[in-house]
Write a structure and sequence with these properties.
Helix 2 packs parallel to helix 4. The protein has two domains: 209 residues, Antithrombin, subunit I, domain 2 (Antithrombin, Chain I, domain 2); 119 residues, Alpha-1-antitrypsin, domain 1 (Roll). About 1% of the residues have low confidence. The chain is α+β, with helices and mostly antiparallel strands and 354 residues long. The strands form two sheets. Strands 1, 2, 3, 9, 10, 11 and 12 form a seven-stranded mixed sheet that branches. It is globular and about 60 Å long. Helix content is 21%, strand content 35%.
């Protein structure tokens, strides 16, 4: 969404860092199509299970929604083509708020919107905004789906897990033997657990004791996010720890700048003239996520905010398969290759922040 307002070298850097094709304008209609495709997965799975299950499924257990919103200072002249692109392709209308006179109320309104859209799984995404903030672009994603093969609760039992620091903790492990997708590529053992439609949870257990060593080799084609079709249907005896974790709000600014997106964060060089006539720059990109892996299924939520400040007013520079050890977890749509969530668990007993 921020790219829709970028111009010149700022747009070029963003397209390169985000791996957009040369015809980068097609990214908007492409993401619109992707959102529409993903949004149909949960209703289709619910309809299928209503037909095939002797016990009526609970509709609240079948959710996958991706929503966006735009929050802008009410006195600023936002460019109509920018707003049209967001409305047509992201379903995002602009909320005109008083960033200048009542920033605290605006921040609270954004946080409340995120909480509502993620079923109260992501709270307090924004802690405190700079007084020069004039625009916030927000994406929220909430997923709750049952396993195709639920884990029997009677088989859950405590077992030892070696954490990323080398210590050992006791935590509940879910156990079952089913025909999952499975691959041992010599670098890791990889198991794919089907959810609804083409969605799956892929668990990757690297042989390397240092999880970061394996993560540094990942690409968009890695088996950790794209298990080959021939690996499906293998009988696997899986023992997986239950996990409930909520991250703190963390910044992506330094990562995006290291990928080459530098001008967007520089108040002197940022060019978002396709967004607004006023000089704006991205001061930060914030994200907060949560994941719960239980016997019945998976629930995950995430929210991301791109925060724009007035460059003319800014006085500060921008921010520069016994799974018993740390593992990688990703949720992917295997039909499109879309990665909805990716992260790692180093201690399943750590619940993160409230």
């Amino acid at each position: 969404m921020a790219y829709a307002g970028a111009h010149g070298e700022t747009a070029t850097q963003m397209a390169t860092a985000l791996h957009f094709a040369s015809a980068a304008s097609s990214i908007f209609s492409g993401q619109n199509a992707l959102i529409q495709s993903l949004s149909s997965d949960a209703p289709q799975a619910l309809a299928r299970d209503r037909q095939n299950s002797t016990t009526p499924p609970n509709p609240s257990d079948y959710q996958l929604q991706i929503v966006n919103s735009v929050w802008g200072e009410q006195t600023y002249p936002w460019q109509k083509p920018f707003l049209d692109t967001l409305a047509e392709n992201y379903g995002a209308g602009i909320y005109l708020d008083d960033f200048i006179g009542n920033l605290a109320a605006t921040t609270q309104a954004i946080n409340s919107w995120v909480s509502t859209q993620t079923d109260d799984k992501i709270n307090m995404l924004l802690q405190r905004l700079d007084p020069n903030t004039r625009l916030v672009l927000v994406n929220a994603l909430h997923l709750k789906l049952p396993w195709s093969y639920p884990f029997p609760a009677t088989a859950t039992a405590p077992a030892a897990f070696t954490t990323g620091t080398g210590s050992t903790v006791s935590t509940p492990f879910m156990n079952q033997m089913q025909p999952f997708g499975y691959l041992d590529d010599g670098q890791a053992k990889i198991v794919s657990l089907p959810l609804a439609e083409a969605l799956a949870v892929i668990i990757t257990l690297p042989y390397a004791s240092d999880l970061s060593t394996y993560e540094s080799t990942l690409t968009a084609q890695s088996s950790a996010v794209r298990l080959p079709p021939e690996s499906m249907g293998s009988l696997v005896n899986l023992s997986l720890p239950k996990v409930t974790f909520t991250s703190a709000t963390f910044s992506l600014a330094s990562i995006l700048q290291s990928m080459g997106m530098t001008d967007a964060f520089d108040p002197n060089d940022a060019d978002f003239s396709n967004l607004c006539e006023r000089p704006l720059f991205i001061s930060d990109v914030l994200q907060k996520t949560c994941i719960a892996v239980e016997e019945t299924g998976v629930e995950a939520a995430a929210a991301t905010a791109a925060i724009f400040e007035d460059a003319a007013a800014s006085t500060t520079p921008p921010p520069t398969v016994v799974v018993n050890r740390p593992f990688l977890l990703s949720i992917v749509d295997q039909a499109t290759g879309a990665i909805l969530f990716i992260g790692h668990i180093t201690d399943p007993t750590d619940n993160g922040s409230p």
